[in-house]
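Consider the tokenized backbone below.
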């Protein structure tokens, strides 16, 4: 281990004997009391020295035996220490690709803050390179989601859509103006390649040699017609439910953006749970849906504000990455909505429906086990911790 204080966390002295690492209450930690010798030892934790050398240098500045190990353990428990050599062969392979790693350093710094264990950030970053995600839709939202996931280091991204790109599909972070007239799927694949920090890693670099193409870790449903995200057709998700493939809905319809729900088949509410619940609250819902989905509407450009679409795409990509990194984001069992012009975010619970054929009863029980349920409360901002 080559311990280093996490560089992403700014440090400042609170007083003469305590140091705060981190600015925001969500991740800040205060360490104290810190004497002059211990402060000098902390300065040595920069990732260039292994523990044997640190122990030797600690003795030179007058610290007793065992002080280095005790301090590193204490700081690691507080989530303040990273390991500059962690991650195994896959991480070593990434470190040899200096250009790719430099592109991803801000993401690595963020992951190191979120995941407190030494080497946790690098482990997640390396894991992303072996992940396979499918994005369904290459409009203003879908193409931007695909590009963002690619830029964040997700190694395999497939984008599915039909037809040719139109001027209204162009968006910053999404399809460029030069893509107008090209096949959407082709233009989206080119976008994914351009935004990737590096070419897709070889199987040998990700530890998956000989295992074949990895299965889909997530499907992001971001159709150009935002109605299909706002009121998704359950029939379109039947195969994903049957195969246990997680999927996340995101889109913009009539100047309203939606992100969620993130469906974990067998664990959380699905599209049919959503529609059954809404139908119980609105008896006319089925009639409205039949007309909305009939396709008999005048050809008109969608009300998809470019800033709102970019915001929705960014939030959807963030929820997707949180899930792919092993967390359960707030979109599991819920969806976020925001409408122009006031832009007030609303969170709507999407509980499992007991009459849904997707094992809703079992889902409800598993959801409670995983720690999410039918209600989502706004939590107060945490206070900095002290060690």
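A designed sequence for it:
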């Amino acid at each position: 281990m080559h311990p280093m204080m996490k560089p992403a966390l700014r440090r400042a002295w609170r007083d003469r004997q305590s140091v705060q690492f981190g600015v925001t209450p969500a991740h800040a930690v205060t360490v104290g009391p810190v004497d002059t010798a211990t402060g000098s030892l902390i300065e040595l934790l920069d990732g260039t020295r292994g523990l044997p050398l640190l122990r030797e240098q600690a003795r030179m500045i007058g610290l007793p035996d065992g002080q280095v190990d005790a301090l590193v353990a204490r700081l690691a428990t507080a989530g303040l220490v990273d390991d500059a050599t962690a991650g195994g062969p896959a991480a070593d392979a990434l470190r040899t690709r200096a250009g790719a790693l430099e592109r991803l350093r801000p993401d690595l710094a963020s992951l190191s803050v979120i995941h407190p264990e030494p080497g946790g950030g690098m482990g997640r970053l390396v894991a992303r390179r072996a992940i396979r995600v499918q994005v369904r839709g290459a409009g203003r939202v879908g193409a931007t989601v695909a590009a963002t996931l690619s830029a964040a280091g997700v190694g395999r991204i497939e984008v599915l859509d039909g037809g040719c790109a139109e001027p209204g599909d162009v968006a910053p972070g999404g399809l460029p103006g030069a893509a107008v007239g090209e096949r959407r799927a082709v233009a989206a694949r080119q976008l994914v390649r351009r935004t990737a920090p590096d070419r897709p890693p070889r199987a040998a670099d990700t530890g998956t040699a000989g295992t074949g193409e990895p299965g889909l870790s997530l499907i992001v449903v971001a159709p150009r017609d935002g109605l299909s995200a706002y009121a998704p057709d359950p029939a379109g998700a039947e195969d994903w439910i049957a195969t246990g493939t997680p999927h996340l809905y995101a889109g913009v319809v009539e100047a309203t953006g939606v992100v969620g729900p993130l469906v974990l088949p067998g664990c959380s509410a699905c599209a049919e749970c959503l529609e059954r619940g809404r139908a119980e609250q609105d008896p006319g819902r089925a009639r409205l849906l039949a007309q909305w989905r009939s396709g008999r509407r005048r050809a008109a450009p969608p009300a998809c504000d470019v800033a709102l679409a970019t915001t929705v795409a960014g939030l959807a990509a963030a929820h997707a990455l949180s899930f792919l990194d092993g967390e359960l984001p707030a979109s599991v069992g819920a969806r976020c909505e925001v409408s122009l012009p006031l832009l007030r975010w609303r969170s709507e619970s999407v509980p499992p429906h007991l009459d849904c054929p997707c094992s809703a009863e079992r889902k409800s029980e598993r959801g409670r086990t995983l720690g999410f349920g039918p209600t989502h409360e706004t939590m107060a901002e945490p206070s900095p911790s002290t060690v």
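The two ends are 22 Å apart (CA to CA).
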